[in-house]
Amino acid sequence: MTAFDDYLAQLRRLDEARRSADEAAARSATATESLGERVRRLAEQAAAQRGAVDELARAARTAPPQRLPAPPPLSGDPVADVDAAEADLEAAAVELDEARYLAHRPPWLPRWRADERNGLVYGLYALAAIVAHLVLMRVWSGLDAGDSAGTQSPLTLALFIGLGLLVPLLAFVIGWFTIGVVTRPPIAREDTRLERHWQMGLVICVSTLLVPLYGVFS
Fold first, then answer.
1. What residue segments make up the domains of the chain, in order of their start?
2. If you count Cβ atoms within 10 Å of the first and of the last residue's Cβ in the chain, which end, N or C, has fewer?
3. According to the model, what pLDDT value does residue 24 have?
4. Three-state SS string across 196-212, please?
């Protein structure tokens, strides 16, 4: 090999090294540009989420959440930090959708159906009505036992009958108002009609009259 051939070989190696360096620089520039685009997109999405959270808080008449300072970088690798930020933003989007759903649902047992929730309310007051019936029956039994001659006045009898009829009606009315308080969502449209299922509540509460009737005829 002559000196000229050796010179040409050196030129070829230098040209290959230059091309490799140019390709590496191009890949690095492309990666940097792609990372910058991801960061800008994340910033836009985060700003949109902050606006949506503030709007949801205003609609629900609550104070918007306080802004926390940005955490320090998770690692020295910017790509890993951006990946972690994207995962956090996706998790925040899921939580925002959940908050939107719950904001339009009743604050008490929001995932229950309306009939199940209302039935539970009426049932609790019906249970209280049964306890009241048992107390009235106990008091009446005590009065009846103390009156061996059986001379209870009609007024006393009418009073106990009236109280017995008033108990289920009172349970129904209190349940009806309770549903209006505990099942009204934080954000409700003006045309939204609150479901109270009053027919079901009336049946549940009036059925408690079976307790004193059983006591009378047993």
1. 3-103, 114-217
2. C
3. 57
4. CCHHHHHHHHHHHHHHH
